[in-house]
Amino acid sequence: MTLLDYSKERSVAIKAVLSASKVCQSVFQHLVANETLTKDDKSPVTVADFSAQAIINTCLKEHFPADPIVGEEDSKDLQGDSGKVLREKVVSLTNGVLSESEQLGEQQILDAIDRGNYTGGAKGRHWALDPIDGTKGFLRGGQYAVCLALIVDGIVQVGVVGCPNLPVNYKEPEGERGTLFIAVRGQGAFQRKFSDEKEEAIQFADISSTAESTFCESVEAGHSSHGDAVEIAKLLGITRESVRMDSQAKYCSIARGDADIYLRLPTSKTYVEKIWDHASGNVLVTEAGGRVTDVNGKELDFSIGRTLEKNKGVIASKASIHDQVLKAVQQVLNK
Ligand SMILES: Nc1ncnc2c1ncn2[C@@H]1O[C@H](COP(=O)(O)OS(=O)(=O)O)[C@@H](OP(=O)(O)O)[C@H]1O
Ligand SMILES: [Mg+2]
Ligand SMILES: [Mg+2]
Ligand SMILES: [Mg+2]
């Protein structure tokens, strides 16, 4: 049996995520209010979401033409007369970060976005892409993340997360921003600056009890119950104030020890989590010495399609305290 090292997937994913992160940064600088659409589920989507998906899917097609992609966005809102204004912006922004030889026509960009329409599943390989995770964070100048993962036979093997607004060192919040996180299953977790290829290994903080830990939680109370988190913190003896941020930057933050526990506590009976919101973070946390389950203690199942239909909520923490955290979560949720 040949052992797959995924080195090509790793380097292509890094290149794609960095290039898409650049388009997001450039859009933010030129952001105008009417460039934001609201989707059926009331979540926002911007020109940057579309451009980032076009760039990454084009890069994946070039290097892995046979690989299908599960991407969050589709080109529906860019089609026809009603989509003309937005479409033209997406075309010019996308080409703005591509070199002369890489320039894309309008149809190529729409087709690239729609390469993300794969249904997912348990067999073979596919990519999971969230071109901007935390679009609300992006719009408010806070944390957001460009997230790309390779799933093989239902297991996440490679995860790359670009966090354009995350300080390289959380102890220097005013220092350089733009941090890239990289993990390959069985090969550890790493971070690097956007500006420098040098990587450093990362791991969870060295805590010995939950009382020493800090929560990292959603900004939006509608995405994770803040009230339940307070109750759980009490049970775990946590006194430190929670860190709140949008996006999978939460997985990145705990993986490098800025905080310790990420809880996504169900707020509705009907919301189903999407694979692109959790795939890269899953392998990153695991490789940094953490564990991820849902609130029932089940591993996240990436093998059933575009959603995590079989799971409810997410608990990510250092592996050694995970059982204790899970127990506290269940105690509060079962009340
Ligand atoms: N009701 C509900 N419950 C849980 N999750 C939801 C819900 N609605 C949306 N979403 C998804 O949340 C993604 C953003 O997650 P965040 O962790 O950034 O949320 S938060 O803004 O910090 O609260 C967000 O991802 P993006 O659309 O990529 O920003 C959505 O996929
Ligand atoms: Mg979205
Ligand atoms: Mg998302
Ligand atoms: Mg998104």
UniProtKB/TrEMBL annotation:
Hydrolase among keywords: yes
UniProt keyword list: Hydrolase, Magnesium, Metal-binding
GO molecular function terms attached to this record: 3'(2'),5'-bisphosphate nucleotidase activity; metal ion binding
Residue stretches spanning the membrane: none
GO biological process: phosphatidylinositol phosphate biosynthetic process; sulfate assimilation
Enzyme type, top EC level: hydrolase
Keyword Chloroplast: no
UniProt: Mg(2+) binding residues: 72, 130, 132-133, 277
Cofactor: Mg(2+)
Taxonomy, superkingdom: Eukaryota
Pfam families documented for this protein: Inositol_P
SUPFAM superfamilies xref list: Carbohydrate phosphatase
Reaction catalysis annotation: adenosine 2',5'-bisphosphate + H2O = AMP + phosphate; 3'-phosphoadenylyl sulfate + H2O = adenosine 5'-phosphosulfate + phosphate; adenosine 3',5'-bisphosphate + H2O = AMP + phosphate
Enzyme Commission number(s) from the entry: 3.1.3.7
Family, as annotated: Belongs to the inositol monophosphatase superfamily.
Name the record gives this protein: 3'(2'),5'-bisphosphate nucleotidase
Annotated organism of origin: Thamnidium elegans
